[in-house]
Design brief:
- The chain has about 120 residues and is mainly α.
- It has one domain (about 1-120).
- Helices cover about 80% and strands about 0% of the residues.
- The chain is built from six helices and no strands.
- It has helices at about 1-30, 35-40, 45-65, 70-75, 80-90, 100-120.
- Helix 1 (about 1-30) packs parallel to helix 5 (about 80-90) and helix 5 runs antiparallel to helix 6 (about 100-120).
- The longest helix is centred in the N-terminal third of the chain and has 28 residues, at about 1-30.
Length: about 120
């Protein structure tokens, strides 16, 4: 049980930091979807780091999905929204308004309501 919880949190953290590095790299280069832009990814260490972290996050997520019920892991993973908002605030100095907090809370409650049904019913 603890191993699965730690794996979910690590997956979330890796995926969130992948987004941070992709944003940093895309902002630095002014990425434009073109042949030149795609070739420029290889020379941008922040974009490369983001892509590698995304790959690692995907492999971790596949492991989580293979070992757990989807309805159980998705509720834990909804913390992802709060973590991304905090990263945007502290890494990119973006403001977080009260309606952003309320929106994230609504998403988390909605995911929780979706997932609660999975907790209350038996698996076949």
């Amino acid at each position: 049980m603890w191993r699965n919880a730690v794996l979910i949190v690590v997956c979330m953290l890796v995926s969130d930091w992948a987004n941070v590095f992709l944003k940093l790299g895309a902002t630095r280069t002014g990425f434009v979807p073109s042949v030149k832009g795609v070739l420029g990814i290889a020379t941008n260490p922040q974009l490369m780091t983001g892509l590698v972290l995304y790959g690692v996050g995907m492999l971790l997520w596949l492991t989580v999905l293979a070992q757990n019920r989807f309805s159980a892991v998705i509720i834990v993973f909804s913390i992802h929204y709060i973590h991304l908002m905090l990263l945007s605030r502290f890494v990119f100095k973006e403001p977080i308004s009260w309606n952003m907090w309320v929106g994230a809370l609504f998403v988390m409650v909605g995911v929780g309501m979706y997932s609660a049904d999975g907790f209350l019913t038996k698996q076949p």
